[in-house]
Specification:
- The structure is a single chain.
- The protein has one domain: Alpha-Beta Plaits (2-Layer Sandwich).
- It contains 3 helices and 4 strands, in the order E-H-E-E-H-H-E.
- The protein is an alpha+beta fold.
- Helix 1 runs antiparallel to helix 3.
- It starts with a strand and ends with a strand.
């Protein structure tokens, strides 16, 4: 069953982004992931929460594939790189209906 990784980003600077994307796209694909959305125009429709600076949604074929991506030795340094210019909330959601 598909799972979704949802990232809410609060970007302080974009200095990390080019290197991060180059590596991360390759590692996501290696684990069967497909980007469903990446955007920097996020708007709150309900509630009082401040919207993130950017949002990312990735679909993986299984829970195991998503976790393998997140723990991949090529991706782990990208987590640290991202933290140099961004605070991130990363969530894993199980698919209920498709």
């Amino acid at each position: 069953m598909a799972v979704y990784v949802v990232g809410l980003l609060r970007v302080r600077n974009w200095n990390w982004f080019a290197q991060y994307v180059e590596t991360t796209e390759r590692v996501v694909a290696r684990h069967g992931g497909v980007y469903l959305g990446r955007g920097v125009q996020v708007e709150t429709l309900e509630g009082d929460a401040e919207p993130p600076t950017a949002l990312v949604m990735i679909e993986f074929p299984t829970d195991e594939a998503a976790r393998a991506w997140h723990q991949d030795p090529d991706y782990i340094p990208m987590i640290e790189l991202r933290k140099t210019g961004c605070d991130t909330e990363l969530m894993l959601a199980q698919a209920v209906v498709r």
